[in-house]
Amino acid sequence: GAVVSQHPSWVICKSGTSVKIECRSLDFQATTMFWYRQFPKQSLMLMATSNEGSKATYEQGVEKDKFLINHASLTLSTLTVTSAHPEDSSFYICSARKHTNPQPQHFGDGTRLSIL
Amino acid sequence: GENVEQHPSTLSVQEGDSAVIKCTYSDSASNYFPWYKQELGKRPQLIIDIRSNVGEKKDQRIAVTLNKTAKHFSLHITETQPEDSAVYFCAAGMNSGGSNYKLTFGKGTLLTVNP
Asked: What is the band of B33 on the pLDDT scale with cuts at 50, 70, 90?
């Protein structure tokens, strides 16, 4: 199998707080992980591609200083939403892929972030 | 960049009927086409995928077809069951530079199977 674990599943916090979300591949090594944002009843919008040991590649319009990504090992990537505001409230989902192209992406359970 | 269009946005069928969801893509460099099923509040789950060197792939009640010339691919679900009700996303995958390989998703189709 290819299991991806995402934590936490739900976060509620005050405006101005920074929130860290973890994405782990449990039974395989993921050289690449992806972070998506999904608004209610909408599609998955790619925010950034995270490669182990190098800087993340951000999609156009995504603020890299706002959404900090770290991929320090082959099984862990983190997304930190810095100084979160209500407009950052969303469903954030990570996915991981084994090294060979093309390969399926396997998704975590997602994190529902609510900023008050 | 790649653009993926998905139709219809909603689809309602009777149990036992077939359901077809269609997607088109814009960039001929795309070479991998997965389909994901997402139930409410849950993770997208890969249900089938197809690579550009294949025209059709089938897995039990699910099949996907790819027409590279027309740049469109379709998902076919036969003998639908209520548990097939979910949002289905198509995606097109391509190398985006260096070692980056990314998926562009369609907007999704809400499939409802009525008992």
From this structure: very high
Say whether A29 sits in a helix, a strand or coil.
coil
Give me the DSSP letters along chain B: ---EEEE-SEEEEETTS-EEEEEEES-TT--EEEEEEE-TTS--EEEEEEETT-SEEEETTEEEEEETTTTEEEEEE-S--GGG-EEEEEEEEEEEETTEEEEEE---EEEEEE-
Rg (CA), chain B: 14
Tens digits of residue pLDDT in A25-83: 998 888 889 999 998 888 999 999 988 878 899 999 999 999 999 988 889 999 999 99
* Under 8 Å between Cβ of A13 and A69: no
Q: How confident is the model at residue B62 (pLDDT cuts 50, 70, 90)?
A: very high
Q: How many interchain CB pairs under 8 A, A with B?
A: 56
Give the integer Cα–Cα distance in Å for A55 and A49.
9
Give the pLDDT band of residue B98 (cuts 50, 70, 90).
Answer: low
Tell whether A67 lies on the interface with B, counting CB pairs under 8 A: no
In the prediction, which pLDDT does A18 show? 96
* Closest alpha carbon within chain B to A108: B43
